[in-house]
Amino acid sequence: MMTQPILDIIATATFSLGLFGAVLCCLQTRDVWPFRALAAVLLASCATTLGDVPWPIANPDSAIRFDIFAAVIWLIGLMAAAPLFWGYVRVITSVTPRLPPRIWVHALLPTIALILGAAVLFMPQHARLGLFTDTHPLPTGWPLAVGMAGEMLVLLAIVQWGAYVVAIIRRLHHYRKRLRSYVASVEHNELKWIGTIIVIYSAYWGVGAIDVAADVTPLTATVPAWIDAVFGLGLLVILLLFGLRQRPSLAPGAATLPDSATKYEKSALTPAMADRITRKLRAAMGDDKLHRDPNLSLWSLARHIGASPNYISQTLNENIGDSFFDFVNSYRISDAQALLRDTDQTVLEITYDVGFNSRSSFYTAFKKVTRQTPTAYRGSVSAPT
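^ Helix-turn-helix transcriptional regulator, sequence as received from the core. Prediction below:
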């Protein structure tokens, strides 16, 4: 069980790291949108930990006023955290960063929290003390209504986070599917760390739900303070480690690619042109070995064969029946099979020789095609008959 000094150290570290990360993001001159969006997320994290930091306030009256102020900031940060994180995910998975549609929906609960916070700060002192301390009676009239609305908003925060988790998961699924339409190696761009954030924050959300349930129901279950503190610090560390290195992964040209085959209906691509592109694509892989380039993209392939990226995408989908990712990897796997069968190269050497960026992605792709691991395949083709 953690002592209060350790909890104070964790809270101070969380607040300081969040503030430092936000300032660092604001100083960036490249990829401004993603860094500004990340800075907003980090500031929301700071807002939720402001009241846990052991600020050196000696005057009791000043300490009470600060605690009330920190509680107001906590509520605003709590309601803003999920929409801001959703906005950050949207920015780094978009071709052209822009504000999401119907932004008022995402801003609604944070705005209500801001209004309630302003009402608390402007209500009479005795009313504030009645809402936030046990030394004064509960206020009546509109101050009581503000307090009840704040309690309801905390309950809504639980529902809000669940809704945003679903939205983020759907966004990542669409993004990863689109990513395979133009890049042949996705392991460095799949944003798996966002999935880790979702898992940890969901556990963090569960802890908060238990705390809220204990406050508004007869339940006696309580969550140790150190769990909340460790979750908060862990989330912030992951955000800083990966967020500060993350760049938008979708190339600007991805904006011109159709999202579905139905959008090819107005295309000027003729069957003869598609057949010619198909031959060029197969020659680029079979003769020129372009699949061995780990950074191969739809646009570099388009430059190589002298065809429009849109036409290549349409040809792959309609004539060949593969995504760009699957088409390139089919040649990589075929190449790897020959090397496993005819050479003594190690699996790791073959992994990089045929164009994969990691052994794990090679194993996954190889097993998907052959139903065997590379080692098992080598053993089967070299076994005596």
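The chain has 15 helices and no strands.
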